[in-house]
Amino acid sequence: MIRLILGGDKSGKSDFGLQRLYEGTMPSLLLATGRAQDFSFGQQILDHRLARNPEIPVKETGIELPRLLEKSILEYQSILIDSLDFWVFACNKQWEQAQDAFLHTLSLVPEKTQVTIVSCEAGLGPIAASSQVRQFIRRLGALNQAVAAVSDEVCLMIAGIPLYVKKA
Question: For residue 89, what are the contacts with CB-CB under 8 A and spacing of at least 6?
């Protein structure tokens, strides 16, 4: 079971993903892709850490998300990946190989394993003025589309309310 949860910044997507993780079969794992680059994001990561169940292990992935996910689907029944947008930042120049590796790993997820993936919905904002931001938005949008295509369930979070776009 692969579930994709999309939404804008502060839409409630991470909290909803965490709820799905808690409802899943144990053992559970959180694969965190974001790394603090400034104080406010560091505080956001700390707030998330304090709010979640301390019994659930957390692994920080960086660019290694596909490799860690492939290993984890053999050990854990429920996995939360939060979030793809930070992973896209981490991949930078290795983008094409990283995206291919991630999509391949998703094809290996056993039916009994629940993988919940959180990502920002890239297409809701204005067209970016800089080429770097446009490149990021296009990469994230293409990745979201590819993940949605292989997902059993796709949910868009709006103001903390899940709207199911694709239901298992």
Answer: 136
Structural domain span for residue 57: 2-166
Structural domain count, the chain: 1
20 contact partners, CB below 8 Å, separation of at least 6? 3, 5, 80, 114, 116
Instruction: Say which CATH number the domain at 91 has.
Output: 3.40.50.300
Write out pLDDT tens, residues 86-139: 999 889 889 999 999 999 999 999 999 999 999 999 877 777 789 988 999 999
Whole-angstrom distance, CA of residue 64 vs CA of residue 148: 21
Q: Which tens digit of pLDDT belongs to each residue from 54-95? A: 788 889 898 999 999 999 999 999 999 999 999 998 898 899
Rg of the chain's alpha carbons, rounded to an integer? Answer: 15
Give pTM, 2 decimals.
Answer: 0.91
